[in-house]
Amino acid sequence: MYPHRVAFWLLSIALALFMMAPELHAQATATTPKDSGVETSAEATPSAPEATPPQPDAAGSQTGVDPARVGLAGLGVPLVTAEDFERASTLIDARITDIEKTDHSDAQAPVSAAQGEAVTADPRIAPLQALRLEVQRRAALVGRLQEAQDALTDLQEQRATLKKAGLATKPPYGITLLDQFRSEQRSSEHDAEAAERAVAMAKQQIAAAEAKVAQANERRRRIRDQVEQAEAGADSGALARQLEAARLSALAAYFRQEAASRELELAQRQDDLARQRLSLLASKVERVKAHLVFTQAALDEQLKALDGREKDARERISALEEASNTAEGALFEARRRLRHTTAEQDKDLLQARVAAREAELAAARQGIEYLNQIVTDIAAARTLWQRRYALMQDDAPAAPASWLSGTDAILDAITEETQYIQARIASLRSIQLTLTQRLGEPRLDPEMRTAIQQRQAALDQQEGLAEQLLAFEDQLRALAQQFRAELTAAARARTFAQRLDALVVRLSGWWNQELFVFQDQGFYLRDMVTGGLVFVLVLAIVSFLKTLLRRTVLPRLNNAARGDERAPRALVLAFIRNTSQLFVLAVAFYAAMATSGLAQGQLQGWLWSVLVVVTWLQVGLWASAGAVDLIQRQRSHRERIDPSAVTGFGLMLFFARVGIWMLVLVSVLSHFDYPITGLIGALGVSGIAIAFAVQNILADVFSSMAIILDKPFRVGDFIVTGETLGVIEQIGVKTTQIRSLSGEQVIMSNTELLNSRIHNFKRMRERRVVFKLGVVYQTPPEMLERIPAMIEAIVRGQARARFDRAHFFEYADFALTFEVVYYVQGADYNLYMDIQQAINLAIYRAFREAGVEFAYPTQELILRRGQGMAKPAFDEGR
User: Taking the model in full, what pTM does it have?
Assistant: First the structure.
């Protein structure tokens, strides 16, 4: 055992010497003048800056750079207080001044022709300035760290005071104090989130600073190696300055890294401060809630404040409406001037004025819109306050879920409105930026500048109103969120869902258990159970619906249906009798597979195609049954009223079925992406050919349909068409049969019958009768005046006649003519003839009693004697 221990100790000593070798080498290098020499800063011996060769950096420095070697010996002391940072900044400023003085003296020295190069800036100035900036940054961070620590201490004292003595005010507490603390709590939550983001950003900055330090040290070592390898006679002074600049850059990078570390510390302290403030506010909220009193007076105060805001908003709406009217007139006048101007140089100015007037009008209208939204929000806030009061008074309804959904709707509306307003404000600011750039043009015309400023003022007004609405939306959001939190707490206190959590956790283990794998697809117990339950559930639902309709709904419809009012009953019967069991099974199977997730990939596509085909077939069955029921019911109804109306119902049913199943076929083919356009085109061409072949027959068929639908006449109507008059006996698909007055049967095609003019006397309610009679010219005038009254009395004496008028019509060739008009109240021709006969007989009797003579055609012959003719014997007596 002893030799093994000796070997172990010898091995340990060898490893220790191996690990100490780099440090011993560094110490030897630092103390050996032959390898690198003791570095003396160029600034330490300003009389001969290029004479001393550069030395390597001190190994004991954290930065790899000794501040004394770059003329900043004071930076080696730790910087803690503000005086330390002030001394370091003064030291850096002095170093910059020394370098600038040296560079100035070198610039004034004579330059030989061989050295006639341009004088460049000293490379050490920029890193020194960066170093000074980092020192100042660290000084500011130290101050902020102290402020954060003081705030944290003060917060801890507040927490101790709250725990010991409570709040400054004594209970009970009002709702306003609770809302104030909750508002501060939300602000603290935002601060905590910002602090978390600041911590993450600080960590990223530390990583970036470490990378900068590594880069700066690498550059420093590379330049140092270049200086060591420089040949004799090279510009050693320039190389020394570059090496010092590299060392200053490394030192500045190290200070930047330290500043990043202080920023991380500050962010963590601010995060701690925000969280402790949040905890303090939570404690205050709990204390206030424990002794909270929401009185009616507090509610009235809130409502009164809302009423005041609403009144102010409505007054501003009225003012903006007047401003809108004024802006509308100004815009009309500006546009009129722009239209009538002919000078090109004035168009830009007029367009700018039009834009200004448009902006003023838009500001007024948008302001009205914003204020109206504020009024709407005030109404929502009033509702929230009233419900909140009811909830805190324990007068809320049993189920506050409706209030919760309403509050969520208000929050959603606020979110949408806020997004709209923010987008509008961004657009306005973009326009204002463009206008500001134009106002910055030095050669801008004064009038153009005035127009742009007016437009900018209108945009500022519009933006101000939008910001007011946005502020009120934020207040309403805070109120809605507070009320929602209270509602959620109330609802949670009334439920027992927490008791089921443990059971759910235990059941989730076997519920998610995988049973088997098929084609690299796992089948789980939950999928199988879900699929089976859904399949059975669908079958049960369909069976239940059928039973319910058959036993409950259908008897009630049978009892309630009267006469032909059986449409609901027919629909229920169609659903019960025409629902295919194949359709039910297909729907149940697809629902089970889709819900459980068992149908994946190509299998799901196949199942969907089968379901589509079965569904369209079932739709065809339902539609066909519905069409049959509808047409049959219409046929039965029309048959009782009009037997002639049943002719075309069979044809209608045939066309309805053909159309339904053609639609089903086309729908199924379209689902399988079959090119149905060609099929429809072929069917169209075939239909056209068939239509041309049987166009006369189809014309009569469609004319029969027109007769059925329009009903210009019915069976039993007396019609006159052309030279044919008679009674309709039958209306067929192609022809109509008419029984003429002479007894024969006239058969006419439906097309010919509809193309002619038809007089339907069956539908004549009254028959207008006009007749004339004449009396002799020797009738006295007094009698002529009495004749119309005599005729009126005769016509009115008839039971089914209505007198219209009787007038002395004209002076005829041989008579004085009277025209009489009356109406026969009925369409029967025999009734008309009976009434006319009675009127004629009565007129004859009345005229005979009154001594009025009827005129009849007579001629009077007058003979005149010519010269040389003998006078007649009766003429001699005159």
Answer: 0.42
User: What CA–CA distance (Å, rounded) separates 255 from 415?
Assistant: 46
Is residue 334 within 8 Å of 357, Cβ to Cβ? yes
Torsion angle defined by CA atoms of residues 195, 201, 205 and 211, in that order, rounded to the nearest 10 degrees: 140
Task: Find the largest Cα–Cα distance for the chain.
Answer: 208
Angle at 524 between CA 521 and CA 528, to 5 degrees: 110
User: What SS3 string covers 536-567?
Assistant: HHHHHHHHHHHHHHHHHHHHHHHHHCCCCCCH
pLDDT tens-digit series, residues 325-358: 898 888 888 888 888 887 777 788 888 888 888 8
Q: Describe the strand order of the beta sheet including 718-721 as a list of residue ranges.
A: 745-749, 735-740, 724-731, 718-721, 758-760
Long-range contacts of 589-596 (CB under 8 A, 24+ apart): 589/535, 591/534, 591/535, 591/538, 592/530, 592/531, 592/532, 592/534, 592/535, 592/538, 593/531, 595/530, 595/531, 595/534, 596/526, 596/527, 596/528, 596/530, 596/531, 596/534
Tokens of 677: 């356009």
Q: How high is the pLDDT of residue 791?
A: 92
Residue 538's Cα: distance from chain center in Å?
A: 35
Neighbouring-strand partners of residue 720: 725, 759
**474-487 residues labelled b (16+ CB within 10 A) or e (exposed):** eebbebbbbbbebb
Q: What is d(CA 377, CA 327) in angstroms, rounded to the nearest whole number?
A: 28
| Distance of alpha carbon 462 from alpha carbon 428, whole angstroms | 8
Residue ranges of the chain with per-residue pLDDT less than 70: 1-64, 74-77, 103-120, 231-235, 394-402, 491-526, 553-577, 596-603, 637-651, 676-698, 702, 708-710, 865-878
Please, what's the b/e burial string for 815-851 (b: 16 or more CB within 10 A of its CB; e: otherwise)?
Answer: bbbbebebbbebbeeeebeebbebbeebbeebbeeee
Torsion of CA 212, 213, 218, 219, to 10 degrees: 70
Measured between alpha carbons, how far is 66 from 247 in angstroms, rounded to an integer? 9
Angle (CA) 430 432 438, round 5°: 110
Query: Which of 289, 295, 291 has its CA nearest to residue 489?
Result: 289
- Per the document, the length of the chain is 878
Q: How far apart are CA 626 and CA 623, in angstroms?
A: 5
Distance of alpha carbon 35 from alpha carbon 52, whole angstroms? 14
Residue with tokens 């004799």: 232
Phi, psi of 521, deg, nearest 5: -125, 125
pLDDT tens track for 294-334: 788 888 888 899 899 999 999 999 998 998 889 888 888 88
